[in-house]
Amino acid sequence: MKWAESAEKHYPIADGIHAIQNRRVFLPAFDVDPETGEVVDLIVGPARDGQLLEVFVHRRAPRTVYIFHVLHFRPKTAARARAIMTAQNEEGKK
Amino acid sequence: MTLSKNEQDHYAALAARAENEGYAPIEQLPAFDAERSTTSEELDALLGEIGELPASTTPAGATAGRATEEDLQELIALGGRPSLSGRPGTGPSPKRQVRLPHDLDALLTQRAERDHTKPSVIMRDAIDAYLRVDA
Predict the structure, then answer these.
(1) Is residue B71 domain-resident?
(2) Nearest to B38 by CA among A3, A26, A73, A49
(3) Residue to substitute from B9, B23, B124, interface A, most A β-carbons within 10 A
(4) For residues A69 and A67, what is the distance between their CA atoms, to the nearest angstrom?
(5) Could you tell me which chain A residue has the CA closest to the CA of B30?
(6) If residue A54 lies in a helix (H) or strand (E), which one and from where to where?
(7) Whether A79 contacts B69, CB under 8 Å
(8) In this predicted structure, what is the pLDDT of residue B38?
(9) What distance in Å separates the CA atoms of residue A34 and residue B18, rounded to the nearest whole number?
(10) I need a labelling partner for A31 at 20 to 30 A (CA). Which of A39, B22, B31, B73 fits?
(11) Residues of chain B positioned with their CB less than 8 A from the CB of A32
(12) What residue ranges of chain A have pLDDT lower than 70?
């Protein structure tokens, strides 16, 4: 697991790692990298002090996960995750 | 951390995209593919390989524009919990019920509060560590 400088823009990496370790939501394919077409996965979990964080990770084969975004969990992130999951659940019913 | 300048630039652009919430249309998102996304099992394995991190303190962060615990619960209800088997769509995870002595239960509660996590997460991690040592 590696992290970019951008991952530490708002929080120390220790908080991002703590959020991943204690993740409460994990949503694969939250977004697509417009440059490479690779997917970005969303993790929501607590910082070391308990505040909820959103963490975006990018997996590259073989077996490397890059953390590039750690920020407080935002309403629009929640709304998009909700829309994705609702669409997935609807698709699963077909 | 050994990212090249190109990788740093690439992730800086992706992070800016995330901050600006300029995501791809949901209709264009691919279906889950374990080759393209990470999994809970993989995350746990990779986390175990991380060494000691630099000392730091958690900043207070933004005071506004935060999603709530209720938002999170809604996502969990929709199925956003980490798949215990590592993949979504594998059905409900098996459940076990155990009785604990009061003192052990109190320790479990204290640890969960200290780590801002749930007792079930601690129990799962402990069983995993115990059983997988010789696996």
Answers:
(1) no
(2) A26
(3) B23
(4) 6
(5) A29
(6) strand A52-60
(7) no
(8) 81
(9) 12
(10) B73
(11) 24, 28-30
(12) 92-94
> What is the rounded average pLDDT of the residues B94-119?
84
Residue B61 within any structural domain of the chain: no
A65 to B43: CB separation less than 8 angstroms, yes or no? yes
Domain count, chain A: 1
Phi and psi based region of residue A36 (left: phi greater than 0; alpha: psi -120 to 50; beta: remaining): alpha
Angle of helix B102-114 relative to helix B119-132, nearest 10 degrees, comes to 110
Total domains, chain B? 1
Find the domain containing A26 and state its range.
2-93
Cβ neighbours of residue A93 under 8 Å, at least 6 residues apart? Answer: none
Identify whether B117 is part of a domain.
Answer: yes
Domain that holds residue B114: 99-135
Domain membership flag for residue B126: yes
Distance CA A50, CA A1 (A): 23
Q: Whose CA is closest to A8, among B1, B131, B100, B90?
A: B1
Q: Each residue of B31-59: pLDDT tens digit?
A: 666 667 788 888 888 888 888 898 999 99
Looking at residue B91, its pLDDT comes to 42
SS3 labels along B24-60? CCHHHCCCCCCCCCCCHHHHHHHHCCCCCCCCCCCCC
**Which residue of A lies nearest to B124 if distances are taken between CA atoms?**
A22
